[in-house]
TrEMBL record:
Coiled coil: none
Protein name in the entry: Pimeloyl-ACP methyl ester carboxylesterase
Lineage: Bacteria, Pseudomonadati, Pseudomonadota, Alphaproteobacteria, Rhodobacterales
Pfam family, one: Abhydrolase_6
Organism, as annotated: Primorskyibacter sedentarius
Transmembrane segments: none
Residue ranges annotated for the AB hydrolase-1 domain, each copy included: 4-231
Amino acid sequence: MTPVVLVHGFMGGSKQWHRQLGALGGGEIHSVDLPGFGENAHLDGFDTIAGYAAWVLAELEARGVAQFHLIGHSMGGMVAQEMVSQSPGSVARLVLYGTGAQGVLPGRFETIETSRQRALTDGPNATARRIAATWFRMQDKADAYEACAAIAERSSIQAILAGLDAMSGWTGVTRLPVLSTRTLVLWGDRDRTYPWTQTEKLWRTIPGASLAVIPDCAHAAHLEKPELFNQIVKDFLTN
């Protein structure tokens, strides 16, 4: 079976995918931690999306993974788009989840520059908890909030600022019309980070892209409604 690669978003980590392990078709799953985040919080973060993409591809090569299905969430969805651009023959099927094609994040709960200034003022731990709350419909009352906030709190101020710079300096809009990888665009309809306009752009511009909208979920649908999320993704990857 084709391996599945999971790429988390800004201030995330591989452990946020625990509800997906073993539920996406029974094959090999590789959940990476981007430099600066999660289990790789001891590493410096990159300030370009292309840098993260090249790092993930090198990591997969080191693991002996040559061809794979790719799921990218949030900033990880930008990284996934870059991975397809850098190594188009490696990705069998692509899931762009809670993400967009513009790193400036138009319509986000706050601008990238506001996040930058607040991170410098409030510090990394307060920033981690504040931003993690926006990922859930019930915010800091959500069942999965504390676990996600704890992962986010591992991020250094360097990684936070580098990640924000990476997103603000990236766009993949011009590549969408020529993206030939079979793609599913997946979105929670209460997402505060990526509004419908970003999702619609991906869906309508990527040739033949499929669309799935999960109701009553914010930015972390894979944790708010994991059974539904897993069924949608498994169906796309196996049929």
